[in-house]
Write a structure and sequence with these properties.
Elements (H helix, E strand, L loop, with lengths): L6 H10 L1 E5 L4 E3 L7 E7 L2 E4 L9 E5 L4 E2 L2 H6 L6 E4 L3 E7 H8 L3 H27 L2 H11 L9 H8 L3 H13 L1
Antiparallel strand pairs: 1-8, 2-7, 3-6, 3-8, 4-5, 4-7
Helix pairs in contact: 6-7
């Protein structure tokens, strides 16, 4: 989300949000349960997974420090979460309820416009990730993931990276070897 200035939204979370600590492996939300909050990650890493019809649980996303964490469709529709969101590391998060967020959006025309821009930016980011999954090579997706968080390899396994990329751990090993040789 680089196209708009999130400093006022970040400020809202830091000033009005409730600070919550998550230990490694704690859940922010579980699949099919309602997501009650949106969080701003002060520190730490969250992993998004989805249990599919075969009982497998691929990794479908991450939130890092200075990112927002939420199952957004669940939050805005007040429905069951589509994903599990679990702490990969100990995390510090400032949370707001949908009501608190909506109250902020309703304070002025500027904040309403800002809310629309945030929703548009979420759509653009999601659409870009979808296209990346279908159009980019696993190597390109691996590089993009590490650009988002260069220290990620300290916290997750090769198997988890493979799950996120939709490839085997052997393919990830091959990608890493290839990149080291450059």
């Amino acid at each position: 989300m680089n196209n708009i200035d999130f400093s006022s939204l970040k400020k809202l979370f830091l000033e009005k949000g409730k600070s919550i600590e998550f230990k490694k492996k704690d859940y922010f939300v579980r699949q099919n349960e309602p997501c009650k909050y949106v969080g701003f990650v002060q520190s730490g890493i969250f992993r998004y997974t989805r249990i599919n019809n075969d009982g497998n649980e691929p990794i479908v996303g991450y939130s890092f420090t200075d990112n927002f964490v939420c199952d957004y469709p669940s939050l805005i529709k007040n429905s069951g979460a589509l994903t599990n969101i679990q702490a990969v590391t100990d995390c510090s998060v400032y949370i707001l309820s949908m009501k608190e967020l909506n109250d902020f959006w309703e304070t002025s025309m500027d904040t309403q416009r800002f809310g629309r821009l945030v929703a548009e930016e979420i759509f653009v980011e999601t659409y870009g990730r979808l296209l990346g999954f279908y159009c980019d090579t696993p190597e390109q997706r691996y590089i993009a993931l590490l650009e988002r968080n260069p220290d990620l390899l300290q916290y997750i396994t090769l198997k988890e990276i493979a799950s996120f990329l939709g490839v085997t751990p052997e393919t990830v090993s091959h990608i890493r070897r290839k990149l080291r040789q450059r």
